Amino acid sequence: xxxxxxxxxxxxxxFISEPMPSLKIFPALLNVSLNSLFIYNSMxxxxxxxxxxxxxxxxxxxxxxxxxxxxxxxxARLSNSLFRLADAASxxxxxxxxxxxxxxxxxxxxxxLVPKFARAGVCLDMIFGPPSDVVPxxxxxxxxxxxxxSVTGPRV
Length: 156
Fold this sequence. Notes:
The protein has helices spanning 36-39, 49-56, 74-90, 113-119, 131-134, and strands at 2-5, 31-35, 63-67, 99-104, 123-128, 149-152. It is globular, with a radius of gyration of 15 Å. The chain is 26% helix and 19% strand. It contains five helices and six strands. Residues 136-149 have low confidence and may be disordered. It has one domain (2-152). Residues 135-156 are annotated as: Disordered.
């Protein structure tokens, strides 16, 4: 089963006032694509930010794609959440997780993230680019990805 909530352009940020409910009740949900708007719907950093991603994901997730389109404070929040996710995967909280791909429009403090995920048996791909390149275009659209930069972990 797959959930794709990457295209947040259809949603007005003013209408999202509560965090996205947990997907833990969907154990058959294996592939998840999320826009950071659904994870960090508040522009203010919260103490719980480090844990929000782990609390949100279904237990048997295999692949996760994250699209950062919210704002300048999101990369730091996303980085902290990714470190927590790598820890959780190392501790067996997500035993089926094999791939995490992040499309980030700003710079992310990813120092040590790729090897941390690799030790947990998870391949982490980080793709950096301007906002227009962060959310992949639909089929038939033209897109220049020449400004994209990619950091990829080892395949597991």
